[in-house]
Amino acid sequence: MGYMADTTARTLRLLELLQSSQLRTVAELADRFDVDDRTVRRDVARLGALGVPVETLRGRYGGYRLATGQRVLPIMFSSAEVVAVFLGLSREQAASSEPEIAAQTALAKIKRALPTADAKRIDTVLEAIAPSPESGGVSVDPGVMLSLADAVDRRAVLDLRYLDSAGIASRRTIHPYGVIAHSDKWYLLALDTDQQEERTFRVDRIRSVRSTSDTFAAPQKSDPKQRLVDRFVEADYRWQIVLHIRSSEDQIRSHLPASVARLERSQYARQRPQDSASAWHRAEIHAQSLDWLPAVIAALGCEVVIERPEELRSEVSAAARRLFASAEFRFDVNPRSE
């Protein structure tokens, strides 16, 4: 190899060689770069000054190697890019049938390759962003995500520009409590200081975030993820539905998750002594429409009693008639010709 005069290029090439082998001798490196031993030692010292953990082995078979368990990527990621990688791999982890083998291994490798300061910052991001197996789906700006996560960690007041579901833009001053993944979307749980009310914001609808110098005290409440679920359940939608369901909690939850229905043991069994040993549950649901509920009730495959509203009885009756008509219809594949 010809003489490599560019110090930066030579140092990066040295890093690449150290990563690709358990050990590189001084003579081998000097020969590859067409430099003397002294230059090799200076290049190794330069890597050390950059935070690359290079070990020196003395003796006849000595040389240089990266510290055990350490690998350093010769790539510089911006903070936003690192967050984007972690979010992408988190989505892959949620979708993979073998997340321990694929996504988690990749996450571990990237984190080990980061400088200590960046690795700590990623820890902060991951701690601030509540994990969820349902995360993924709607893409978000990684720069916005990093700003939100940093603000949650530092309890920093944020100036937020937001676009709601109706396309109306607004500017809010908020106290960010948590960033949570739920049902394929990311949400920010925060106190809207103008309204003095805890609100939920879709992260993909946030247009800009600016951190202020002000801070706020952490609220003495339950964890942000549980509060988000509670907000979905208690949302002020058009219909308040109450069902009494005779089934196990696991079976009910497979069709009515915690973010959809509030579930508790029902008093309905006391009204029917013959069913006193049955597992009756009361499900309270807030919904904007009723048309999706007949299919859910049918899918439960058990006794369901509608307490309210009356309009849901009509929806279920109409769905039952359609199903009955489908069951009664006979399709003649060989119609007789006249």
TrEMBL record:
This chain belongs to which protein, by name?
WYL domain-containing protein
Against Gene3D superfamilies, the record matches this protein to: Winged helix-like DNA-binding domain superfamily/Winged helix DNA-binding domain
Q: Does the keyword Transcription apply?
A: yes
Q: Which UniProt keywords apply?
A: Transcription, Transcription regulation
Organism placement in taxonomy: Bacteria, Bacillati, Actinomycetota, Actinomycetes, Micrococcales
Out of the domains of life, which is the source?
A: Bacteria
Among Pfam families, the record links this protein to: HTH_11, WCX, WYL
Per UniProt, residues of the HTH deoR-type domain are 7-66
